[in-house]
Every structure is written in C-alpha cells, then in structure tokens.
Amino acid sequence: xxxxxxxxxxxxxxxxxxxxxxxxxxxxxxxxxxxxxxxxxxxxxxxxxxxxxxxxxxxxxxxxxxxxxxxxxxxxxxxxxxxxxxxxxxxxxxxxxxxxxxxxxxxxxxxxxxxxxxxxxxxxxxxxxxxxxxxxxxxxxxxxxxxxxxxxxxxxxxxxxxxxxxxxxxxxxxxxxxxxxxxxxxxxxxxxxxxxxxxxxxxxxxxxxxxxxxxxxxxxxxxxxxxxxxxxxxxxxxxxxxxxxxxxxxxxxxxxxxxxxxxxxxxxxxxxxxxxxxxxxx
Length: 282
Hints:
This protein is an alpha/beta fold. Helix content is 40%, strand content 17%. The protein has helices spanning 35-41, 67-81, 93-104, 125-135, 143-157, 164-172, 195-203, 207-215, 234-243, 259-262, 264-275; strands spanning 10-13, 20-24, 46-50, 86-91, 109-115, 175-178, 188-191, 220-226, 247-252. It starts with 9 loop residues before the first strand and ends in a 7-residue tail after the last helix.
C-alpha cells in the first residue's frame, strides 16, 4: 500500500490511546475548518483532520473525485495508522464522503456524524460552483487586490445561496500566496484547491446512491442541519430522519450551511452529547 499519508496534509491532535475521531471538511475546504471543534474535543479524544484529495496541500490528481475515491483514501489512511474503529464527522461534501465510507466500511465505524448535506442532487449545483470559480480572477497580485475584489465585486455580483459576506470570507481563506510562481518571479495568490477537483466532485454526486447509503447506516448516527440552511431543506431533513432508526436529527438554531463555524458553541455541545464526552475521563 505504501506511504499513503505522504499524499496528504494532515494533523493528529490528542492522546493516541483515546477514542479516534476523524473530521472530513466540505467542498473547497481544508483541515483548519475544524479547528475550534478539534480544540474542544482533543482533551478526551484523538482527532485526525486532513485535506482531502484535490484540496489544500494534499495530492491533486487529474481525475478520481467520486465519493468512493475519497472514502478509499480514508480507509487507507486509518489502515496505515493502525486504527480499527473511528468516529467519523463529515460536513457537506465531507458528509457525502462519510456516508459512502459508512456503506463501504461499516465495520470500521463506531459512530457517524453528518453535517448539512442533502442526499438529493441539485442540477443547478454545477453551474453555481462553475460560475463562482470563474468569477474570481485568480491569481491575484496582492492581498489588497484580493480583499478589494471579495469585499466589493464578489458580494455585488455573485448570487450566493446564503450570506455572501460569509461565503467571501470562506473563499478568501482558500487562497494562498505562491512565491515566485510566475515568470516575473513575483508572488501570486491562487486557490489552495484544484478547480478540476471541485467541479468533478459536484458533477459526480449520485442521489440514488446517497439515499441508499443513508438508509443503510448501521451505526449510531447524528444528522445535523442548520435551521437556515439552503443546502438541506427541512422536508428532506425530516425524510432522512424517518428513513433509518439509527439516525438522530438535530437542528442548530441561527445557522446556515456552515453550521460549525457559524454556531461553534452550539455545534460542539451537540457533538459532545452524542459522543458521551462527559463520560470520558480527562
């Protein structure tokens, strides 16, 4: 199998003898998206965060962005680490990949947490993300140029599903300075992720499979929705809860799609309750 971890940017926090929790970020995300949640759990759990393929500082293959590709990456990672069972937490695309993992490797899951992802496919999603990425004139020459674009033109021109300012902040966090990356030797600011990976990940969503994965979850599962989410509507959320007796549903008040960043305290409290955090000794 080789050195799988060498292909990924990852971080392990906490005592390796503790129960293992793995976090999967969403589309265009990276490992730091889970920072506050990991800090809230790492005194009693061993937490793994990593940039999934095509994202952050991890490998960016030219193809291979189906949920099964992401799920197999995770399986190979935990095999290399020697971890038998994990608690898996996934947001958005990471939630979709976590559902796939639960179907392919159910024996490796202790508990599952899915955050704000609908099993249904929105046919407008590809166009939405393509338009978003094409609007951003990367690479930028300076931080000031980047900030000016997102604080003015992006907010004015892009029809964001939720708060455009929150989305702009999220996207800015996904831009990185690449020193001497241009012919003139000057630094440029460009995406951390692969645009191909983002668009392929959206295009390859498979709703029939996703509903099948939801219905066949065989471990305890917490399904979290932000009550203002445009990505997971209330009707679909209720259908998810009814589809499988292993699933417990929780809605976080005053939160949209980015539940754990918009309401970190409420999110962490619900996660701790589900994980029986207070029953573990420090």
